[in-house]
């Protein structure tokens, strides 16, 4: 476990509201940090997926059918690809 000491300068109204809502307890701050870390990971995952989606043009219908046919062929004759 690590100990972290924070010194925050907040507007009075925000500090009062956070305190009243129980958000300034160690447990609440831990939960807030975990939620933000999770949110950022999800954001990075979607950004990476968007980048990957942009790498290649989608397959044409003919290319998809050729891929399906190749898989079916390899299942019918499993040793055909081995030499």
In DSSP terms (H or I, runs of 4 or more residues), the helix count works out at 3
Major beta-sheet overview: none
Count of individual domains = 1
Amino- and carboxy-terminal Cα gap = 56 Å
Shape summary: elongated
List the helices and strands and how they pair.
Elements: H1 12-20, H2 26-53, H3 61-76
Structural account:
This protein is mainly alpha-helical and 83 residues long. The protein has one domain. It is built from 3 helices and no strands. The model has no long low-confidence stretch (mean pLDDT 90).
Keyword list:
83 residues; mainly alpha; 0% strand; elongated
Summed up:
The longest helix has 28 residues, at 26-53.
């Amino acid at each position: 476990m690590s100990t972290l000491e924070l010194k925050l300068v907040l507007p009075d109204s925000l500090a009062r509201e956070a305190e009243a809502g129980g958000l300034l307890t160690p447990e609440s701050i831990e939960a807030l940090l975990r939620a933000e870390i999770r949110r950022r990971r999800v954001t990075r995952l979607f950004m990476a997926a968007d980048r990957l989606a942009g790498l290649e043009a989608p397959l044409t219908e003919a290319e998809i059918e050729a891929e399906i046919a190749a898989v079916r062929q390899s299942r019918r004759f499993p040793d055909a690809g081995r030499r």
